Fold this protein.
Amino acid sequence: MERARAVIPNGMYGHESVALLPEGYPQFFSRAEGARLWDVDGNEYLDYMCAFGPNLFGYGHAEIDTAAAAQRARGDTMTGPGEAMVAFAEAMVAQVSHADWAMFCKNGTDATSMAVATARAHTGRGKILVGRGTYHGASGWAIQRASRGLMPEDKAHVIHFRYNDVESLADAVKMAGDDLAGIMITPFRHEVFQDQFLPDPAFLQFARESCDRAGALLIVDDVRAGFRLDRDCSIEAYGVSPDLSCWGKAIANGQPVSALLGVEKARQAAGSIVATGSFWFSAVPMAAGVATMRAIRETDYLERTIARGTALREGLQQQAAAHGFTLRQTGPAQMPQILFEEDPDFRFGYAWVTEALDRGVYLSPYHNMFICSALTEADVRLTLERTDDAFAALKARRSSVQPVEKIQPLVEAIRAANR
C-alpha cells in the first residue's frame, strides 16, 4: 500500500478499493484457486466475493483456463478478432431466448452505455428511465450519487423512478413524453448497504407494456446477476422478455469481456453506433467465454450454487440467533446480502466480518456476495465453524463495538436517495 500510494491516487480506486471496508482488509492478492484466494502476505481466505462476481465456476477452472491458454498460444489481441468471437456470439444467442445478435466489449459500463446508445439510435429519442439509486456503471449518465468531475448535462436526459413502484414508473414515462427511448431495469434490486429484493411481476410487465406503447426499448442490466439466477436472461422466468440485455462479470469466468444482446428489431441501430476499443476484440476472453457457456449448458453449476448458498444462509441464521443476534439475509441465496437487524450504523456488521476475516473467511459488510460452483459442502461447513467463532467473539465485545464513522456520509446519501 505504501508503494501504491506513491504511484496510484489514494493507493487504489474504484469498487475494489478497501477504503470503505473495515481496517485490516487486504488490498492486494497474490493468487487464487477454486473458492480460495491468498493476499500478498500469504493469508488464505474462503472467498465469498468471487472478484465481485466474475468467477462463476471458481478461480482457475481447468476446462475454461485450458481453452483460454490454447487461444493465447494462437493469438490474443490481433489486428482483427479471432473465430472465437463468432463462436461466442453463437453460443450466447443460442443460450439467451430473446437474443438474435451479440456485441462484445470489456466492462459492464461499456455494455450499459452501448444499450443506451442503441435505444436512442433505434428510436431517435433521448430519454432513458432508470431506477432511483440503482447502479448501471461508472459513466456520467449512470452515476447517481455525488461525484466530483461530473456535470449536470451528463444526466440531462435520464429520468429516475422507484424500483418496483408501478405508479412511480408511470410518472417517469409521462415525464419523458414523446422522447422516451428506453427503460433500464435490473433483474432484482441489489444495491450496496441495503436489503435486496426481487421484482414484482406486475412492475416488470408494466415496464414491458410501457415500452411497447411508446415504441421504446426495454433494457435489462444483467451484468451482475446474469447466469447466476438462471441459464437465461434473469427476467425471462417472470414471462417478460427485454429488447436489449447487458451482460458481464460471469460470462467468461473472470476473463475481461462483457456483452450487449438484442432482438432483431434493434440490430440495425446497434450496428450504427460507435462502439469499439483496442482490446474489445481480444480472442482469449472470447475462447474462455465459449468454454464458460458450455459449462453453463452442461453442468449443474446453478443448482450447486443455490444449494451451497442456502446451506450457508440457514447455518448463519441459526448461529446468529444462538448468539443473540438477528440477521437480515436478502436476495437470492447464491448472491447473498447479509446485514444485521438493529444495526443502523453498521457497527455489528463491520465487527462481525472483521472477526470472520481474521479466521480466514472473506465476507462483505455492505455489498452482496457471490457463491461459486467450486465451493464445496466441506467449504461451507468450514465457513460455518469459523463464522460461529466470529459470532462468539462479537458477542463477547458487543457493548464496546463502535459506530463506523467513515461510511456514514455515504449511508445517509443512499438513504436520502431512496426516500
User: Anything to note?
Assistant: The longest helix spans residues 301-322. Residues 115 and 244 are 7 Å apart (CA to CA).
